[in-house]
Amino acid sequence: MKKSVAGKKNVTMNKVICALGLCLSVGATASAAPADSYDAGKVSIDLGTALSPTLDVSPGNSFDAKNNFYGGVTVGLGHNFALQYKYDKTEAKEVNTYYDASGYTEKDNGKVTVNTVNVLYKVNPAVSAYVGNRHAAGEMHNQWGYYDYDGSFVSDAETRISASKNYAQAGVIGQVKLAKDLSGWGDLGIGPDLLTCELGVGYHITSNLAANVSYDYAKYKDLASYAGHDFDITTKGWKAGITLSF
């Protein structure tokens, strides 16, 4: 893990309670619907956006996040194996905290970008298992200062923490047909300092196109360290997208 730090003040310390119970009860790890086939040469592409997600920094703040893009591709290798790549980014909306009538202000924001590679094995038509790696790159930015008469922000102190870490993971994906053209899935992934989970439903518009909605949760422990504190990053929220298969 690498980090870079600049400034004088630490990020404000506030405890964030994360909703682990929901994820443990439903299971998941990907912001994508499971591929239907792992036959050699079969390709499944997932594209979509987050819907009002949140990003929690612990210790630190809980942020509303922007509706960022996610994507992924799964390629069948044959003999029940497939290779998968996924990209996901959660970027916080800036939070301004005003401390007195003079307008002295603290500005906080953060983001995490995750690139994932998995090898999947289809145990049976309803269950797949996988192993892989998540590379998480996070950044936290804290500024102190005031807004000038022209609306520009004048900073007199700041802290910037950036770090990246590889998280090995293993998991299981289960899927079930709920009705004609409608299916549901759950996915649970775990690893040292990592918990990911997702629950979703997909509707097959055609044999090669499906629309998906899911709730996604991921917690990355000890992503960064600064001033004697280890920082955990948690992302969660609803996502909507499409799956193209060919």
Description:
This protein has one helix spanning 20-26; strands spanning 3-6, 43-58, 62-64, 69-78, 81-91, 95-98, 105-124, 127-147, 153-179, 182-191, 194-206, 209-226, 229-245. It contains one helix and 13 strands, in the order E-H-E-E-E-E-E-E-E-E-E-E-E-E. The chain is elongated, with a radius of gyration of 20 Å. The protein has a single domain, classed as Porin (Beta Barrel), CATH 2.40.160. A hairpin with a 3-residue loop joins strand 2 and strand 3 (62-64). Residues 1-31 have low confidence and may be disordered. By secondary structure, the chain is an all-beta fold. Strands 2-4-5-7-8-9-10-11-12-13 form a ten-stranded antiparallel barrel.
Give a short synopsis of this structure.
By secondary structure, the chain is mainly beta. It has one helix and 13 strands; from the N terminus they run E-H-E-E-E-E-E-E-E-E-E-E-E-E. Strand 6 and strand 7 form a beta hairpin.
Derived structural class: mainly beta
> What is the second-level CATH architecture?
Beta Barrel
Task: Quickly count the helices.
Answer: 1
- Output the helix-strand order: EHEEEEEEEEEEEE
Report strand %: over 45%
Uncertain runs: 1-31
By CATH, the topology is: Porin
Shape: elongated
Average pLDDT level: 85
**Count of spatially separate domains:** 1
Strand order of the largest sheet: 2-4-5-7-8-9-10-11-12-13
Radius of gyration over all CA atoms, rounded: 20 Å
What's the total number of strands? 13
Distance between the termini: 38 Å
The residue fraction in helices comes out at: under 10%
